[in-house]
Amino acid sequence: MTFETSMLSVILKQLEIAAFQWNKDDDFTPINELPDWFSGLYNKRMARSGVPTNFHLANAFPFIENFLYDAEKLWSQSTDGQLHSGLWTEITANDVEFYIEAVAINALQTPVLLFTNETTNFDVRHKVFQTARNLALQNEQLENVVQLHQRKLQQQLESFCQPQVSLTELSDNIQEESSAVLICRQDGAVELYNRALVDIYSLNDEGELERQSLLEKWVKEAERIYPEIHRVLAVGKHWEGEFETSDNGETKKWIRLMIAPIVNEDQNEKIIHYICIANDISESRISLEEVERLTQIDPTTRLPNRRNFWSYLSTQIDQKKLQGGNLALFYVDLDHFKQINDGLGPEQADFVLNTVASRLKRCLKTQDYVAHLGADEFAVVATDYGKSNALPDMAQRIIEGIYRDVSFNELTINVSASVGIAVYPRDGANARQIVKSADFAMYHAKEMGRNQFQLFGPGDIRDTVSKLHIEQGLKNAIEKREFELLYQPQICIGQKSIHRAEALIRWNHPEHGLIAPASFISIAEDSGLIIDIGRWVIETACEELQRLASKNINVKISVNVSPKQFKYSNLADDIIKNLKAYKVEPSQLELEVTESAFMDNMDSVVEQLETIRKLGVSISLDDFGTGYSSLSYLKNLPVDQLKIDRSFIIELPDNRNSKTIVESLIKLAHELSIEVIAEGIENQRQLEYLKALNCDYFQGYFFHAPLSASELLTAYESVSIKKS
Amino acid sequence: MTWSPFQVSGNAEHESRSFIPNKRLLPMMNKKICMVGAFAVGKTSLVKRYVESLFSEKYHTTIGVKIDKKNLTYQNKDVQLMIWDIEGVDIFTDLKPSYLRGASGILLVIDGTRSKSLETAKQVKQLVDDNLGKIPTLLLINKSDLRESWQFSEDDTKSLAISENNTFITSAKTDQNVERAFERITHLMVED
Question: CATH assignment of B6-191?
């Protein structure tokens, strides 16, 4: 499998897509590693287990059996079109519902069937449709009430409209009626009307009705929707319907109108009157329009939703194609939104989304388009931004607009966003490509540290895909035994007799060979996989200590610990468990923590470290000098060792600044009874200089490169550091 | 009319099967039934009542299609009903003709309390006729438990051209005629 092929497989799986190549009839071969949800469903349907080579999808899913009929037509045409099946529901053995859509495409003239898992977005979609249909039902009920009332009123009026009943008497009966009533002659001449009719048509002068034929106006207005109205009335039949009318001030209204002809039976069924009953139904009509609008509005933020976004973006790009010009898409993704959602709950998360939506609208021009694409993703489309050098300013405005505290009742959190920018036509020829480019740029912005923007560059795609590939590989690396610990000794020159080594992780990737931690640790941190990797490191180091102890070799091994291990795992328990399991003395283990571990929740981390330290495990502060390096709180941290970062060591002894910093650090540490380890020693001059400053330990290629477990054993055996 | 030839099984995981020893003379017949009609007329509730013997008052709108299976024995023939519960028709959802393909029977559902559902049913029936031609079709006038609120009479449904024999007044809530309607459509499909 080539890199590109495996990359594609990873991307499809990440997107929860199951992709198949159609062979013939009901015979399909998977193109990618199938997502678990699909394998589970398929196996349930086929009452089997394991992963078959070929799949019989029509047999498993009756919905697909039906869809294949259309799909095969598309595939036989070998065109670039695509066919969507529409959504359908499958239920697992545990009664979990999956909402799935199938898409048939021709990819490089190969018939391909994709299964997309729409379950994540289903709730929002369902909420919109449920609201819309509930509203529609309420409207129907209201209309029914109006209809029923009109019919009853019509019957009453018909019974009144007898030759022996005077119009005055009839008029008295209808004046207080809530429905508008008009009784006219066949030619439209007004005979009677009530107050409600005057109100509907906003008439200033009641005489106006007598000067115009409202019946004629209504028929003209109604025939746009009901072309048969002339015929129905001409043959003396009852008519009813709903249409748009305009009042005297030309304000548009919707009315429900019923027209009932009154015939004179003695005059050969000649129509002598029309009884017209009208009700203003504008409000329910407006809510019906609202129903239609709802399907394109996100219910949480009231911004246009993803469906509206695609439609808008495609339309705008089509216009640019015809008229020329550029268009910019800003893909905005909130940073750490998952923690907000998981930590504070969906209601507070919705509050944050609403706040961000308001802030976005405020920092943009009215002609800029903003949509909420779902979860923590927003999009801004700018069609009129002037020159391209205006885009960074606009992106900065978005970032600064969002980057403020959000306060709840008793809590304040900081919200930030990463923004990716893509420009049509430079970064893509159609909506899909532009979105993809902006998404890659956004991903790059996340990579660069979040709370910033990035313009799309050609390298973004490769970088992002590569990261996805690494993340996918990391998930299986532990169980596939692809990690390895190397050990770099820390040398003590002088009277001390403690022998130490730092455990350094390496990843032996089956395809890409040895991968250094710099290439995957940050990805593991972002994805949370660092917790499992961190546990593996502690366990493996303890195992190695046991092995060395069995050879009577007494050393201390330091392991690196991620800030996330303090936050999301029970580090002390993990350590106790491994010390016991491998019968390791606590004093043989050391944790290396970086300053960033203290930044998030210093009190909790200090408490955990004190607990661990009480066990007898020592603590080393790593990379000191590169980050916050707050000397003032160093005295409060429970640390035994301080490691000076290699970036200072490398410039010794020639760089005056580095010399000053290193000298100060060693002096300060010693005053606080903290030992100092210098890492990155590469030559004799560096060593001599640090020795002169009474540095306690030295680590670097000048002494040893990182050694495998067996090399470490050989090295220690050669210097004879056997237990006494 | 009685529909005694049926042996209907219970439900397990939305699929059920009834075995009558020594009576299975023919291989299993598969019959596709499409539940069609306006939105919120009770199509899903009818299927749930028939397949799972359950009913919920809460209106939970269907999006897309859900397929349930029910196995039964009809005159010594094993029959599997494949019931396609299809999203109701409204202003933003049309009935996709492709969903009807291969159907052996249609259950056209209307809500007795909503005259608009009858209007929609007329359009749906036309679409079914255009796509499937003459096919066993039942009219289910649902929500008989709300009969006092009905907005039309059975006479009003004559324009749908579905015979009285094939018209059932149903209620998923009280279970009125639900079983009978499915038995009837099965009979028509098997005999068709």
Answer: 3.40.50.300
Long-range contacts of A289-294 (CB under 8 A, 24+ apart): A290/A135, A291/A132, A291/A135, A291/A136, A291/A139, A291/B91, A292/A132, A292/B91, A292/B92, A294/A128, A294/A131, A294/A132, A294/A135
Among chain B residues, CA nearest to A137? B40
Which superfamily, per CATH, for A478-718?
Answer: EAL domain (3.20.20.450)
Out of B14, B39, B64, whose CB is closest to A99? B64
pTM exceeds 0.95 for this model:
no
Ordered DSSP codes for A216-257: HHHHHHHTTT-TTHHHHHHTT--EEEEEEEE-TT--EEEEEE
Cβ neighbour number for residue A473 with a 10 Å cutoff: 21
> Which residues in chain A are contacts of B61 at CB distance < 8 A?
126, 129-130, 133
Minimum Cα–Cα distance from A92: chain B residue: B13
Between β-strands A483-490 and A500-509, what pairing exists: parallel, antiparallel or unpaired? antiparallel
For residue A299, say if its preceding peptide bond is cis, omega within 30 degrees of 0.
no
Segment B64-113, tens digit of pLDDT: 999 999 999 988 889 999 999 999 998 778 899 999 999 999 999 999 99
| B positions 86-125 inside 8 Å of A (CB) | 90-92, 96, 98-99, 101-102, 114-116
Indicate the fold that domain A300-469 takes in CATH: Alpha-Beta Plaits (3.30.70)
Least Cα distance to B145 among B70, B49, B73 occurs for B49
B59 CB near a chain A CB, below 8 Å? Answer: yes
Which H helix or E strand runs over A454?
A: strand A453-455
A76 touches chain B (CB under 8 A): no
Which amino acid type is present at position A180?
A: A
The verdict on ipTM greater than 0.90 is no
